[in-house]
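Below is how a single chain appears once it has passed through the pipeline. First comes the sequence as given, then the structure the pipeline wrote out for it. We keep one example in the README because the format questions we get most often are answered faster by looking than by reading.
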Amino acid sequence: WANQKQSFWAPDVSLHGGLYYMYFAAEPNNSTAAAPQMCVGIATSKLPAGPFADIGAPLMCSAGFVDIDPKSFDDPLSNKTYLYWGSGGAPLRVQQLSSNRVSFAPGSSPVEIVFPSSHDYQQLVEGSWVEYN
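Resulting structure:
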């Protein structure tokens, strides 16, 4: 789905159950200059240095540069896993992942959490990072 463009960035890698999960932003093969798209993809590996194997399809795609900069977070209090992502001029979003970590939890939906400003250099909010403290 993204092997022809080879445009990938912002990987986030985490270890769970003996498997490394890499969430990344990628330009899909069907993206064009007239109708650009970005997707969040997932690849897994048994080793932190790879090789990583793509799961075969993007987790999500959208027009423009909204689906970028994914970051997974395991909430130690609720034992739920969340994916944060965004911007491209849109709000940052969060949504619960299913226990398999490669799809969204049934019944979950994206929640907008950080909104861009109209001020210069604040129109883009990107690179979500979440830590438990």
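The radius of gyration is 15 Å.

See the next section for the split statistics.
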